[in-house]
């Protein structure tokens, strides 16, 4: 009887997990497998950044002037934007995403139309950050963010010892490698 109750409880837990998506692809898929952080909102992104770097003077619904305004296009799947200052006072842009795959697809398509478009971001599972400079990028990497790019020139510079995920959009990748680390 006791074994039957235990099996029933385990079966119910497995079924509940399957229904809610806990622990599966709905929980971040390949980016979760890389150990990337996830945020529920802009404040969550700010907390992630502050684990390794600095994000102060948060301004919600703001994009730093040096960030391409095309990311506001709905095809980029950006739910909300914000900016904050790093330890040197440079503004970083925070992008909370509704769908990382759509974000990568939009970046790839925009790069194909405009080869000068910068598709390099530091990312978590469901957000992207454009650092204010190399110093700020170092803190973001310490906070557990990886580099994302859809530019084939960047892919060819990643050494074989680095972790890479190319599972969401062919031609886009996420890696723990950063040229600033070398």
Low-confidence stretches: 1-26
Order of strands across the biggest sheet? 1-2-3-5-4-6-8-7
Measured on Cα atoms, how large is the radius of gyration?
A: 18 Å
Number of helices: 6
User: Average pLDDT across residues?
Assistant: 82
* Distance from first to last alpha carbon: 61 Å
Order of helices and strands, N to C? HHHEEEHEEHEHEE
Taking the sheet with the most strands, its summary is: 8 strands, antiparallel
Structural class: alpha+beta
Supply the key terms:
alpha+beta; 8-stranded antiparallel sheet; disordered N terminus
What do these coordinates show?
By secondary structure, the chain is of the alpha+beta class. Helix content is 33%, strand content 20%. It is built from 6 helices and 8 strands; from the N terminus they run H-H-H-E-E-E-H-E-E-H-E-H-E-E. A hairpin with a 5-residue loop joins strand 2 and strand 3 (91-97). The longest helix is centred in the first third of the chain and has 19 residues, at 2-20. The chain is globular, with a radius of gyration of 18 Å. Mean pLDDT is 82; it is low at 1-26.
